[in-house]
Amino acid sequence: MTTIRSTAAEMAAALAAGTTTSVELTNAHYAQIEKVDGAVHAFLHLDKEGALAQAEAVDAKRKSGTEMPPLAGVPLALKDLLTQKGVPTTCGSRMLEGWRPPYDSTVVSKLKAAGIVILGKTNMDEFAMGSSTENSAYGPTHNPWDLARIPGGSGGGSAAALAAFEAPLAIGSDTGGSIRQPAAVTGTVGVKPTYGGVSRYGLIAFSSSLDQAGPCARTVLDAALLHEVIAGHDERDSTSINAPVPQVVKAAKKLDVKGMKIGVVKELQGEGFQSGVLSRFHESLDALVSAGAELVEVSCPNFDYALAAYYLIAPSECSSNLARFDSMRYGIRVGDNGERSAEEVMKLTRHEGFGPEVKRRIILGTYALSSGYYDAYYGSAQKVRTLIMRDFNAAFAKVDVLVSPTAPTTAFKIGEQVDDPLAMYLNDIATIPVNLAGIGGMSVPCGLAAEDGLPVGFQIMSPAMRDDLMYQVGGTLEAALLSKWGAPILDKAPVLVGN
Amino acid sequence: MSGISREDVAHLAKLARIEMNDAELDHLAKEMDVILGAVARVQEVAASDVPPTSHPIPVNNIVREDIVRPSLSPEEALSGAPAQSEGRFKVPQILGEE
User: Fold this and answer.
1) A100 to chain B: which residues are within 8 Å by CB?
2) A324 close to B (CB below 8 A)
3) Which one of A161, A462, A480, B54 is at 20 to 30 Å from B62 when CA atoms are compared?
4) pTM for the complete prediction?
5) Element counts in chain A: helices (H) and strands (E)
6) pLDDT in tens, chain A (499 residues)
7) How far apart are CA A134 and CA A34, in angstroms?
8) Distance, in angstroms, between A236 CA and closest chain B CA?
């Protein structure tokens, strides 16, 4: 029987077999949201009317005998930074409160065309800047494993929705780890595709050379099915790669890594990594060896500089991208009393509309790009980017994929790091190199840390446009761990009871 | 390398068009000092013979065919405007009165 705990693939099979309907599935998920989202706060907005209309349309079409796309009728949660026509899109910011975009992002167009039912928009750190979802202007999301803890960020809402069985699929975006780190700390799967693999049209820009939308799910196969829906060339995004989408579904089903060379990154497992994270990581390496893979230790010395380069490049691009929020064409406007100038209104609006982290990064980026400091900061960071790409290229000449823990620690307590920006930035230390190089990265659950019983993520990195390789390794690891555990990791999470 | 004063932050805030009060400027100046101290590490390895990378995949002059296609109506384009008048965005005065 299909329940909200089923995988998306199982739901799709039940829909195809006629043992459930999309309306039934959609209502079941809204019932779960009704029950638990008061405590989790994964969603910022629900679009029940639109979702049920799509569900009914899919059911009617299927009944008429039309052949349907693989995930047609399956519900999904959408990160609130992708535009969906007529549905509030805030990016977790006061700046866009009440805004209803007049157009669909390409990701949303593809989801709709695939018959996927979009339940609502999920919470996130404001403009995707953060690692805990505490920077949302609409309050934090709570980790379903322990409601006092963060669900990661910036896509904490999407990851928490999956872990709380409020949706079987979700979309996230990953600029420095915003899909993978939330996946790691919630015991779910998150994939950052190769840069250019998924269109950025309609994805509200934070750092354009790093941003990439991707699939979030509870299994590797579900992520692969969603990946194939949203990926592909788009002439509306000039950085979109015009090449066939890697065959990730086929790769996720291989369940075989015999003869594959897996590089273990030396620099991403030492100081600062929690012991329970490292022990689960090493057990997973053993599982991959048992499955026939060969381990190779790989050194990427410039990764030590990745975090510093990222916190110059991303703020620089953000200071430029967020200049669009000028209170003239969309978003809120503050202090327009008929006497103040446009510039004064702009300044007041940006003071009120942006939260502390966004302001911090805009100021930092403005500094890094200003004349006199440009070469020392932004210019140097761009050179480090080159060095990191060289490290990856050298490594991929020797191995098929690289691996590391996804995040240095398990989920921390809400409020614990909020006043220490540098401590917060360290959460992304293992995920950032992937974004700087534009390659693919995935996080797969690999167990619970002994000291706190919280989920740990295993990161797999694959060369650009070889996203299939990380799905192959991820699918194999998932299957090996599942047979060891006897049940999916989320079966160990506390069952949330409604009020 | 760093040593960011409150006046520096005030200048940056002006460039970025963000109003900031004294308390915010003081707080941010302190934070900027710490963050810049940490990120300045990039200079240790950014040798002169290393070319900069601005973008992960090389792209050049990507254009699409110049053909007429449906786009937003004026009503749709104005639908999110804080203020509008006669089918246009209505904005506060840009030039001074004097």
Assistant:
1) 79-80
2) no
3) A462
4) 0.97
5) 16, 11
6) 899 999 999 999 999 999 999 999 999 999 999 999 999 999 999 999 999 999 999 999 999 999 999 999 999 999 999 999 999 999 999 999 999 999 999 999 999 999 999 999 999 999 999 999 999 999 999 999 999 999 999 999 999 999 999 999 999 999 999 999 999 999 999 999 999 999 999 999 999 999 999 999 999 999 999 999 999 999 999 999 999 999 999 999 999 999 999 999 999 998 899 999 999 999 999 999 999 999 999 999 999 999 999 999 999 999 999 999 999 999 999 999 999 999 999 999 999 999 999 999 999 999 999 989 999 999 999 999 999 999 999 999 999 999 999 999 999 999 999 888 888 899 999 999 999 999 999 999 999 999 999 999 999 999 999 999 999 999 999 999 999 999 999 999 999 987 5
7) 22
8) 8
CA A317 to chain centre: 19
Q: What are the residue ranges spanned by the domains of chain B?
A: 6-44
Structural domain span for residue A437: 8-303+385-492
Helix, strand, or coil (residue A442): strand
- Based on the structure, what is the number of domains in chain A? 1
Which A residues 343-372 touch B at CB under 8 Å?
343-348, 350-351, 354, 359-360, 362-364, 366-367, 370
A317 in a structural domain: no
A258/A298 Cα distance (integer angstroms): 19
Annotated active-site residue A61? The verdict is no
The answer to whether residue A107 is domain-embedded is yes
Q: How far apart are CA A206 and CA A174, in angstroms?
A: 10
Domain harbouring A17, CATH code: 3.90.1300.10
Q: What are the distances in angstroms from CA A42 to CA A7, A124, A148, B90?
A: 19, 9, 14, 36
Q: Is residue A378 part of a domain?
A: no
